[in-house]
Amino acid sequence: MSSDRNYEREFVRTFFTSPTAVGGENSAKMLQSAAQLRGMQAPDTWIPDNEDATAPSMRDEGVQNLVEVVSEHGASFPGEIHPRVVWHRDDPTTRYEGFKQMLEITDPENGAVEHIDGFVIPEVGDLDDWKKADEFLTIIENEHGLEEGRLSMSVIIESGEAELAMSDLRAEKGKPSNNLERLFLLVDGQVDYTKDMRAMTPTGELPAWPELRHNTSRGASAANCIAVDGPYDDIRDVEGYRERMVENRAMGMTGIWALTPGQVVTANEAPLPPKTGSWLLELDDDEIELDDEDGRQVYDGDELSLEQVGDDSYVLRVDGEELECDGEELHEELLDLTTYVPSMDDIVDSMEEFEAAKEAGKGAIAMTQATTLVIDDVEVDIAKDRMWDEATYQAAMTPVALFQDVYEHRPDQHDALEEMYGADIVERAMAVGTDD
């Protein structure tokens, strides 16, 4: 199997679903509203949802709404459009209904297909089931005179069968007997997955399923797809949503489901490198951001205290434990308690410096990060060195590559990105790492 991706996008931050039909005078109003989102409010992938988000009795109307809205607004929508149709691994009738929905949506006479990037297939089972959906798409492409592989396929991992299938996907993609190269997104669906696993929690809330998220991220990496986390349904818990994304990014999963335009904005912005760097104190498994006051990092809390009792003698108290130390020992203790979150400017500076060093024939260089900590009015200068080599450089390239991917594919977000970082940093970020 080729190691190249089959689609231009390397990153997807947002997977935004909206019902294709709702009750009321204008059943297409949710589609019409979503189709006109722009900038940071517009998702990377928009999923007009003709499955769970739309009542079964309204799905035929939903298909017609989808066709009409995409025909009218698809050309100007800044993200990709991937309708979600009905499907089920155990129900041939449901699979056939999904086939008919896709056939109607892609009929060239309806005017929508030129703006449709692919389809999202829910409730898949083992790889034989994935191949059924793939074959339906191949039939549809031939029926409507589209190039084979023109329509991408994304699947929602909502069963143990589908989770296990990801382990075999790498070996199956690229075989002459299927077109599974069309796979684009692997999306977790924790609600139905919980039901399929017969899982229970005391409160009735969904389990976090970190193993599923890890397996989906691993499966996507091995098969050159993109992994997306499932819905975070407490739409008021913005901080919890952010924390979920931090956990996901640590396991290689950038994208997440969004249920509201507010979640879209959060999910679009959160993976990008921060505008300004920040120092954190790590105390009792908590990360506390220090206040930046004129370049000094000030701690204002009661979990940590510092007292200078002599010219080079200090008493450091951490969570009730007291440590007497000299200046050098204090420096080392505080280094262990602090960490730095680099800004976009910091990352680009470091990468440019390493590129210059590499050009000069150096394989590794030391980067120094220094600041002044202020704890109980006692000032302590700290500095930490980090060795940069090619592996460090490539790891730092990931957030920059994300930024470059966003800037290339989302011109509607250029103004917001330049306002966030400044035009100079944007220009430098787009240039770094492009010589290889």
Automatic annotation (TrEMBL):
The lineage of its organism: Archaea, Methanobacteriati, Methanobacteriota, Stenosarchaea group, Halobacteria. InterPro entries: Aldolase/citrate-lyase_domain (IPR005000), MS (IPR053484), MSH_C (IPR059088), Pyrv/PenolPyrv_kinase-like_dom (IPR015813), Pyrv_kinase-like_dom_sf (IPR040442). GO terms for molecular function: malate synthase activity; metal ion binding. Gene3D superfamilies: 1.20.58.1560, Phosphoenolpyruvate-binding domains. It is an enzyme of class 2 (transferase). Its cofactor is Mg(2+). The keyword Transport does not apply. Residues 114-258 form the HpcH/HpaI aldolase/citrate lyase domain. Its EC number is 2.3.3.9. Keywords: Acyltransferase, Magnesium, Metal-binding, Transferase. NCBIfam families: malate_syn_AceB_Halo. This is Malate synthase AceB. Residues 279-394 form the Malate synthase H C-terminal domain. The keyword Transferase applies.
